[in-house]
Amino acid sequence: MMRLLVLALVMIGQACWAAGPENSKRPVQRGGNVYPVAMAVGSAVAPTARHEKLLLDNGLSSSMRPLFRPARVEKNARQKKRLLRKGAVCGDLAIQGEEIGRVKAQLKGCGVERAVRVRSVSGVRLSQTSVMDCRTAGALKRWLDRTAKPALSRKGGGLTGLKVAAHYACRTRNNKKGAKISEHGKGRAIDISAFRLRNGSEITVLHGWNNRGTKKALRKMHRGACGPFKTVLGPQADRYHRDHFHFDTAIYRGGNYCR
């Protein structure tokens, strides 16, 4: 009886041992001698052209380290910025001058609430510091940048200065008795009689308007002022403007007046 019991236990153990590998998590040992094989580098490993393009597009091919700048260059740049900031008016570094605040009226209708005295605009120096409001200073800058400087870029090395014939002055229009107050008396106007070039030469409105070598540039500057300024007068307007351009920023119901 004991022998039968032992035999039964042995047979049950063998059955459990035979079924074990089907449920085991342990990996089955391979038969025979198996050696590691070095696989060739395939296309899946090498970066694709699309991947390289993405890297370039995202800027990953270039160094993020800033370029080294000598201390002297940095110092000069800071000094220049301080000087510009010190002399800037109307919130624009390109308009250099000083704030003078309210200009009191000497005649009824004259005066400027928030006036500035401008000495240069976009690197172009005015022959005399000129009093005006910021809207007029901004219009002068736009005209210089868009029209005047490009028009004279090939003449005498380019534009460096404006000869100012008039700026703020509390007077009537064309100094006529009983006439309305001029826009000059409100800080909205500037008169320009000549343009100074880098080589030291000068183009005047009086002699250059019909001159073969300069009339094209002068007419372009006159025409281009109509937009930044609301009133533009020149040699063809009347006898009072034969020798200068009159620009002002007065707004009229009829729109711009340019002659």
Automatic annotation (TrEMBL):
Signal peptide start-end = 1-18
> What InterPro entries has UniProt attached to this entry?
Extensin-like_C (IPR009683)
Keywords of the record, alphabetical order, are: Signal
Domain (Extensin-like C-terminal) spans 106-259
Protein name per Swiss-Prot or TrEMBL: Extensin-like C-terminal domain-containing protein
Upper taxonomic lineage: Bacteria, Pseudomonadati, Pseudomonadota, Alphaproteobacteria, Rhodobacterales
